[in-house]
Amino acid sequence: MTFLRNAWYPAAWSHDLGETALELQILDQMIVVFRGEGGHPKALYDACPHRFAPLSRGKLRDGRIICGYHGLEFDGTGRCVRNPHGNGKTVSALQVRSFPVAERYGMIWVWMGHESLDGSHPLPELPLFDDPELTWVYGQLNVRVNYELVTDNLLDLTHVEFLHPFLASPGNSARTHYHCEQTGDEVRSVYTIKEEPVTGLFQLLWPDAPATANMVADIVWQAPARLSLKTSMGQGESPAAHDPQLVVMHLLVPQGEEATRYFWAAGRNSAKDSENVSAMLKQGTQNAFEFEDEPMIAAVRSRMRSNDLIAHKPAILPFDEGAVRARRIVTRMLDEERAKHAAI
Amino acid sequence: MTFLRNAWYPAAWSHDLGETALELQILDQMIVVFRGEGGHPKALYDACPHRFAPLSRGKLRDGRIICGYHGLEFDGTGRCVRNPHGNGKTVSALQVRSFPVAERYGMIWVWMGHESLDGSHPLPELPLFDDPELTWVYGQLNVRVNYELVTDNLLDLTHVEFLHPFLASPGNSARTHYHCEQTGDEVRSVYTIKEEPVTGLFQLLWPDAPATANMVADIVWQAPARLSLKTSMGQGESPAAHDPQLVVMHLLVPQGEEATRYFWAAGRNSAKDSENVSAMLKQGTQNAFEFEDEPMIAAVRSRMRSNDLIAHKPAILPFDEGAVRARRIVTRMLDEERAKHAAI
Amino acid sequence: MTFLRNAWYPAAWSHDLGETALELQILDQMIVVFRGEGGHPKALYDACPHRFAPLSRGKLRDGRIICGYHGLEFDGTGRCVRNPHGNGKTVSALQVRSFPVAERYGMIWVWMGHESLDGSHPLPELPLFDDPELTWVYGQLNVRVNYELVTDNLLDLTHVEFLHPFLASPGNSARTHYHCEQTGDEVRSVYTIKEEPVTGLFQLLWPDAPATANMVADIVWQAPARLSLKTSMGQGESPAAHDPQLVVMHLLVPQGEEATRYFWAAGRNSAKDSENVSAMLKQGTQNAFEFEDEPMIAAVRSRMRSNDLIAHKPAILPFDEGAVRARRIVTRMLDEERAKHAAI
∠ CA C324-C328-C333 to the nearest 5 degrees? Predict the structure, then answer.
């Protein structure tokens, strides 16, 4: 198993990239991200070519990064623009590898693939981030397992009743209707529950909520590991625009075979100005991921000899369709990528 | 080196298996032990066959164990008896491997060997646990080394003067007569010391003890790693029934190549109703094993490249006979087991 | 990569070898050092030949070391001189490997090479330790990297302005003239800075110092990893005997491939009786090594796949000459040592 390289990966929330450089690990590469001239984000391999000191331990000045070991100074393209020693000559070997970067949807994105393919891969489409009706809170965490195990968890919301007891009511699973569909390389799972008691979470978003309502949780997965989950409750047969809605984006970044950086953002279309709701949503979402999902996924990993779920011959149940489809797509894309790279 | 599989291994003291399931590692296998219907102990492989969540993280209800991830429910035979999702169908693949279990001598025992051999291997004989003259205290600890290194330590009590200064008097080693004998696959070492100052430990058991008495420490080993040590002090030539006696059972369970679960129980035939003596014996025994033996055995391991003591060509002294015999028996039994499994 | 074995390595400062034995790791060997008869230092392989208990966990009595596990007693040559058990016989197998030891320059030195070569390798010449003009403070630390990476750091003092801002003034690097020379297998790097602001450190040594002075830092390296750095400030063209001078000895001991024991001593020729200066120098030097150099060298290591700097094709700058020369000498000596050992 390995990673899809030809992809844009999230590096940081824009608001977290300020006046210091960030040290990141993406696909087993160490990367430093910082704001270069004009505040534009830059990404370099995080090692000075002189003695391999991590540049992320250095200082930023005027959009350049100064190595903390011998003071060599690099611009956002990775070129050494100053050698503070002796005659000050730089040599062409003082060039750091740079990575294409973009800033969009409130995030810094880094292209980890073949340089010649950069232009041919547009940034992912995540239009929900542009929806003017939504107010967002953000978070992130590290998960001690392969990203595909996190995808498995997210594409299967039937675990909510058991792992997140505050987010569902007892017996919820038996009442849930599950539907999965695949469009191209996009996998969508829809969970429909009629006359579900309104959860504590939705009561925050829905003043004067009735005792029960119809709930729909609609999650869409894109390779390698971007998921958007829209949950709404309402009184009609299907969700209506004015129904209270909670959107959670899940953006998974493989740090290495056994480590994942997990960015999440939760948007809502009601109680939008309540700082209290923002704070509860931020802490509650973070806690569910950190203290309920993460330990369970790590425990699952402890019972597997590798990250290849399918090779372990799990008992497949109907609601596993989404996760199985996503794994098949990633496997096919990895094969394609290997073939393409062999041809370059 | 590997483990003897065709054996009953201790899993827990009976009094420690209450209303929650226990997660155990035995011979590199993860096992969940719990009380099934009627309170009978059950042992299953500790992973749900659906997504491999450890069942030990689940909940017990009416003698069944409910997976904490998706709520699948298993009985003590490992059969899935309830699927809480959608139409509730279970599939035959939802079957967990179960292990034979027994409850005897105040312990839960698990058979780790070939299923077809279960009936042919009776539980170990540990009649001292049934002796009505004895009152017991119990304990357990984890040791960071292979179980055979712990056996080496226990079959050689000449270390007591040096490693456990409170349990012997100076010069004790020079006065000790050592005798070793083997009967079938049982190894017995007997240490006899004439006119030994009565130790602080025996003063607890012997009111109005004389200044010195004759001491006998008699330890019997059975494969893979069960030892019973009877120590008595008295004024006759050989131990008499009414002499104060301390029995310590040592039951070692290989968790993996470099980890051992160590169950111990200490029984006495005097001061039987004294809570004070019970408390001192419990804490003192635990402390000696945890803070004196365990660090020394781990330090010994740090100087070896493997767990095979003999391959390191140690200088063999007369009192090493017991440990050497026990290692030879285990090696022969491992060979026999490999041959037998090859024939099955 | 491996270690030069035919060398005397520092084991401890003399003042740190008192009434207890020290457990050391040198070139991946575990060694116990203690004071034998007459207080002479002794070095043995740190494992009892009986059951491999570390002798360093034992007790010292009358210049002998008594194993803490079974009480076997060894003299400074590694011979078992007492067996406290039964008939007290010792066997010839009870012999511990001993290492040649010397005490010189306030240190214990251990010869780690071939025994037949002992006589042919004199102790290193470190005459600065005998200089009656100098007063010393001492320290030591563990570094989580290969010793050659520490040598790289020490043979390149151009990092001082950036990594140790309190020891240099801004822009210092541009004003530094660097000269490197090799005499036999000795590498010397000299850094000359005219009209340098007198650093806080030198103000301690130089009452009524002028605002600026000429500074010379002169560092000499000997294989495998001994460095002596003389830094002086003065008003003449070249250093004069009465100029305030600070000498720092750096003695690196490979514990293993990824671990180094680092002994240092700082001597000064002025403010010699000031306890305040001694205390500041001791703490300041220790802090610079522990909190500035050590984390940076470990960070450098984290960006390399091995300890072979040259194999990583670093951009070589003029001031890297010393480090490159030292690495070449060690590589050649390792080749010679392998050839010599093959011939023995």
Answer: 150
- Residues with Cβ < 8 Å from C207, sequence gap 6 or more? C271
**Shortest CA distance from C317: residue in chain A:** A50
Other C-beta atoms closer than 10 Å to the C-beta of B100 total 15
pLDDT tens digits along A57-93: 999 999 999 999 999 999 999 999 999 998 899 989 9
Q: Give the whole-angstrom CA distance, residue C117 versus residue C6.
A: 8
Q: Which residues contact B256 (CB under 8 A, 6 or more apart)?
A: B25, B27, B28
Sequence-separated (6 or more) residues with CB below 8 Å from residue B135: B267, B268, B269, B272, B273, B278
Phi, psi at C99, each rounded to 5°: -120, 140
Distance from C-alpha of B95 to C-alpha of B74, rounded to nearest angstrom: 8
Question: Least CA distance to B176: which residue of chain C?
Answer: C86
Task: Return d(Cα C309, Cα C313) in angstroms, integer.
Answer: 7
User: Distance between CA atoms of A271 and A259, rounded to whole angstroms?
Assistant: 35
Whether A47 contacts chain C with CB within 8 A: yes
DSSP-assigned beta bridge partners for residue C112? none
Residue C79: closest CA among C91, C70, C89: C91
Q: What is the mean pLDDT of residues B79-83?
A: 97
A35, two tokens: 């704001």
Query: Is C46's Cβ below 8 Å from some Cβ in B?
Result: yes
Contacts of C30 in chain B (CB under 8 A): 302-303
Instruction: For residue C344, name the pLDDT band (cuts at 50, 70, 90).
Output: low
Does residue A84 come out as left (phi exceeding 0), alpha (psi in the -120 to 50 range) or beta? alpha
Residue pairs spanning A and B at CB distance below 8 A:
74
For the domain made up of A8-120, the CATH class stated in words is mainly beta
Q: Does B91 touch chain A (CB under 8 A)?
A: yes
Is B69:A173 a contact under the CB 8 Å cutoff?
no
Residues of A in contact with C300 (CB under 8 A): 51-54, 69
Q: What angle in degrees, to the nearest 10, is found between the helix axes of A147-154 and A294-302?
A: 120
Chain B residues in contact with C71 by the CB 8 A cut-off are 161-162, 173
Q: Where are the domains of chain B?
A: 8-120, 127-334
Q: Are A253 and A261 in contact (CB under 8 A)?
A: yes
Given a contact cutoff of 8 angstroms between Cβ atoms, the answer to whether C265 and C289 are in contact is: no
User: Which residue among C159, C174, C314 places its CB closest to the CB of A49?
Assistant: C314
Residue among A4, A94, A97, A5 nearest A43 (CA): A97
Q: Contact B10/B109 with Cβ under 8 angstroms?
A: yes
Tokens of C58: 């034992």
Q: What is the CATH number of domain C127-334?
A: 3.90.380.10
User: Is the preceding peptide bond at C224 cis, omega within 30 degrees of 0?
Assistant: yes
Structure tokens at C209: 């110092």
Give the whole-angstrom CA distance, residue C47 versus residue C44.
Answer: 8
Shortest CB distance from A50 goes to which of C176, C296, C314?
C314
CB-based contact A50:A72 (threshold 8 Å): yes
pLDDT in tens, A91-149: 899 999 999 999 999 999 999 998 777 667 899 999 999 999 999 999 999 999 999 99
Closest of B153, B147, B107, B138 to residue B261, by C-alpha: B147
Instruction: State yes or no: pLDDT of A344 exceeds 70.
Output: no
- Given this chain, do its domains C8-120 and C127-334 carry the same CATH topology? no
Identify which of B30, B47, B85 has the shortest CB distance to residue A317: B85
CA distances from A338 to A1, A4, A184, A344 (A): 12, 9, 20, 10
Listed in sequence order, the DSSP H helices in chain A are 147-154, 160-163, 172-175, 200-205, 275-287, 294-302, 321-343
